[in-house]
Amino acid sequence: MCYLDLSIIIVNWKSKEFVRKCLSSIYVNLHSLRYEVIVVDNASYDGCGEMIRAEFPSVVFIQSSRNLGFAGANNLAFVRCRGRNVLFLNPDTEIRGPAIQQLISALESRQDAGMVGARLLNTDLSLQTTCITALPSILNQALDSQHLRSCFPKWPIWGKQALFESCSTPIAVEAISGACMLAKREVLEQVGCFTTAYFMYAEDMDLCMKVAMTGARIYYVPDAIIVHHAGGSSSQHKDNNFSNIVLRESLIRFFGLYRGYFYANMYRLSAAVVSFGRMMLLILMSPIAIYP
């Protein structure tokens, strides 16, 4: 039985200062709702628990003895939450104005809505174009580059057309960023919340896929503004190749689960071909860089 309007779940990994700012923005801007906030520390032991107990005593803090990954930590909090709506929020986010109220209004006013996402801004308040996206495919992963995205931002393969519409009402999209995902509890219970086959990355795309498979729709709410200081936790990793390696492995799992293992192996092959092509291009371009 749900006793609250909203549960907000935040997973921390060495992001104590981000968590402090995020919680402050929640309590400043969230009014007239019955809600709870649950913070899970993913075995980082960075002092986040002590900070929360001293500064935000109403927050439910869960200390995990091991790193469960993004999906596992969110699921750990989900089984304890009491809201009819559940907001999964990155620790490196800050709420602006009535963003959460606008998200709830969009979610609850549409019978077909299963999940909604906000308009995310970078630290400098520029638009964070990753707030909506297409679900992963071999094509959009093979062509994924900053140059192509900049030159052809409205290509359907990116799934970002809604960012360029002047409409202020919610717009149905394929997928939203895991930095801010508000879902109906009943939908999350139906799909089993996050899939724990991934340690990092692709969990948000997986959840979007599962929500869509129930027949519910996902909406982007352009009027709901949240600042996302991207990379607050993953930037703690010293290995520059860490993110790319884990992302690729997560996509292989995603394709295996939803498109079959033949498709997953074709993605693996395409990724190798693209990497080889980029390496050859760098080799061919190196004489030009040396002898301009």
Kindly describe this structure.
- The protein is α/β, with parallel strands linked by helices and 292 residues long.
- Helix content is 40%, strand content 22%.
- The protein has helices at residues 16-29, 48-55, 69-78, 99-108, 138-142, 146-151, 185-191, 203-213, 242-258, 261-290, and strands at 4-12, 35-42, 60-64, 83-89, 93-95, 113-121, 132-133, 171-173, 175-176, 180-184, 217-228.
- The strands form 2 sheets. Strands 1, 2, 3, 4, 5, 6, 8, 10 and 11 form a 9-stranded mixed β-sheet that branches. Strands 7-9 form a two-stranded antiparallel sheet.
- Strand 1 (4-12), helix 1 (16-29) and strand 2 (35-42) form a beta-alpha-beta unit.
- Helix 9 (242-258) packs antiparallel against helix 10.
- The longest helix is centred in the last third of the chain and has 30 residues, at 261-290.
- The N and C termini lie far apart (69 Å).
How do the strands and helices of this protein lay out in sequence?
Layout: E1 4-12, H1 16-29, E2 35-42, H2 48-55, E3 60-64, H3 69-78, E4 83-89, E5 93-95, H4 99-108, E6 113-121, E7 132-133, H5 138-142, H6 146-151, E8 171-173, E9 175-176, E10 180-184, H7 185-191, H8 203-213, E11 217-228, H9 242-258, H10 261-290
Parallel strand pairs: 1-2, 1-4, 2-3, 6-11
Antiparallel strand pairs: 4-10, 5-11, 6-10, 7-9, 8-11
How would you briefly describe this protein structure?
This protein has 292 residues and is α/β, with parallel strands linked by helices. The chain has helices at 16-29, 48-55, 69-78, 99-108, 138-142, 146-151, 185-191, 203-213, 242-258, 261-290, and strands at 4-12, 35-42, 60-64, 83-89, 93-95, 113-121, 132-133, 171-173, 175-176, 180-184, 217-228.
